[in-house]
Each structure stands twice: as C-alpha cells, then as structure tokens.
Amino acid sequence: MNETISALKLIKAEKDSSIMEEIKELIEGINFNGKIKLEPYQVTTFEERHDINEKLLERIEELADGLYIYSMDRNIFDNLIGYLSNNWIVLLKKLKDVCK
User: How much is the average pLDDT of 77-89?
Assistant: First the structure.
C-alpha cells in the first residue's frame, strides 16, 4: 500500500493519495486477535482473527468509493501521462542505466 500511495503522490494524484492514506490509517488501527489457539492446518476467517467493526468497514468502503476508479470526473491516466511527459528525459536515462 505504501508503494501505491508513493506512486499516486509522484504523479500528483493528490485526491487518491489522500484517500489511500486515510484507508491505510484505518487499516493499521485494526487489532489482530492473537488469542485464538490454532491447531495445525486450522482455517479461520478474517473476522475471527481481526477485531473490526461495521462502522470501520463502512468508512473504508465510503472512502474507497471516492477513488478515481469510481469517478467520472478524474482519470488517473491523465496524471500518469502528465508525469511521463514532464519527466521523460530523466526516466529514459534511468531506463538506459538499468539496461546496461
């Protein structure tokens, strides 16, 4: 998730990076329930292993609905193309260095 947020910041997709940051903070606040004694090969559900409530899930869903993928007025590829257009010389040099 950190890499995704960094990439969004790099291409100046501020709204999406902000949303992802908030989702990340909410996810980091989920407590892992390590008190369950597991037998070898026992399978548990996500809900059994994590202390999570409906309000938290609803907030994450609400935030996710604001991401570019669900937006009619934002196209993340515009951000990507803008970044590539402004930095193509540097990126080309880095690519050549990697291919040596």
Answer: 94
- What is the end-to-end Cα distance of the chain in Å, rounded? 30
* Full-model pTM: 0.72
Q: Report the alpha-carbon angle 53-54-60, nearest 5.
A: 100
E-strand stretches of the chain: 31-32, 50-51
Strand partners, 51: 31
How many C-beta neighbours within 10 Å does residue 23 have? 19
The residue with greater pLDDT, 12 or 57, is 12
C-alpha–C-alpha distance, residues 9 and 78, integer Å: 14
Q: What token pair was written down for 24?
A: 């990340």
Neighbours of 8 (CB within 10 A): 23
